[in-house]
Amino acid sequence: MSSTSSNDGRKRCKCKKSKCLKLYCECFATGFYCDASCSCHECFNNPDYEDIVEESRQLIASRNPNAFSSKIHGLIESPTSNNVEDGDQVKPVAGKHRWGCNCKKSMCQKKYCECNQAKVGCSDECRCQGCKNAYGKKADYNVYNKMQLVDSEFSPNEFNNPHNLTPLTPFQHNGHQYDPLTSGTYISSSESANSDMMLGTPNQNFDMVTFDQQAYPNASMNQFTPPYATNFHARHLHSVMNIPPMMDLPSSSTASESCFSMISWPGSSMTPVTAFSGPTVMNTNDIFYTGGVVPCLISPGNK
DNA sequence: GAGTTTGAAACT
DNA sequence: CAGTTTCAAACTC
Ligand SMILES: [Zn+2]
Ligand SMILES: [Zn+2]
Ligand SMILES: [Zn+2]
Ligand SMILES: [Zn+2]
Ligand SMILES: [Zn+2]
Ligand SMILES: [Zn+2]
């Protein structure tokens, strides 16, 4: 615990030129102020510069309304923008930076790849080249001629499977090593992924894989669910342990199904909080699970 | 620790 | 949009 994460596990930045006011900074990006555990230089991401932080945040948000929408990363369609109704498909498009990684040289084998770092497989949304993501390769028939292969051609088993159902680090009890490619704990819940789903609309179900302290929805159904819909890139990792005070606790608790309860905060950004080690700002679309496990939600395909 | 590689974020 | 630059982390030695 020397330099990296401090007690709460949150990663700390070491920014030198961004002043911790850009998304380059993980602290800023995840809605936290920097603190003594950070090794940043010329940091403005602290309560003393609340105004500046907010200003920068808004600027970025104006550019990409979903920039701070955890996990979804633009997935949730914004009312106004970017719903491409193309031909017969309505594709939610992120404000920028479409879904998925864009790896050119790492073949998604290392943490240079966001998907890999998030411990999720690549999906069709990724534009990686020569994907070899250990957590699930992007379907490569895609690379060849997606357009020409017709479903009847390939066996679903072979192609559909590896792709998404390959999870990761599971519940790691101590000392149990485990192979990312084979094991994993699945929890499938039958909740819909719609905005109001949290109230139990039985619609589509999404699975999740539980990890240490997080849950990833497992995009098991190919194109409908991007893999890392949940915690993509640390910036999307909002830890449950840090819940801002003024959050609005809907009666959601009742909605919960199994051991999770959901909390969502209706929006508008709130004022940063320091005392509380929670994120300084929350986003409207964020949904959290309490109960040891975290995020998840989604369904891009949710038309 | 220094130096390189990498791809997201920012910028034009 | 695409091309380029900037950036901090991941990685290598
Ligand atoms: Zn920083
Ligand atoms: Zn920081
Ligand atoms: Zn900082
Ligand atoms: Zn990748
Ligand atoms: Zn990917
Ligand atoms: Zn990939």
Bound molecules: zinc ion
Spatially, the strands of the biggest sheet line up as 3-4-5
Structural class estimated from helices and strands: little secondary structure
- Extended strand count: 7
Helix content: 10-25%
Q: Can you tell me the overall shape? A: elongated
Reading the helices and strands in chain order gives HHEEHHHEEEHEE
As a percent range, the share of strand residues is: 5-15%
Summarize the structure.
By secondary structure, the protein is mostly loops.
Write up this protein.
The model is unreliable at 71-95, 141-231, 233-273 and 287-303 (pLDDT under 50). This protein is largely without helices or strands and 303 residues long. It contains six helices and seven strands. A hairpin with a 4-residue loop joins strand 4 and strand 5. 42% of the residues are buried. The strands form three sheets. Strands 3-4-5 form a three-stranded antiparallel beta sheet, with no helix packed on it. It has a two-stranded antiparallel sheet with strand order 1-2. One zinc ion (ZN) binds next to loops. The structure holds a DNA duplex (12 and 13 nucleotides).
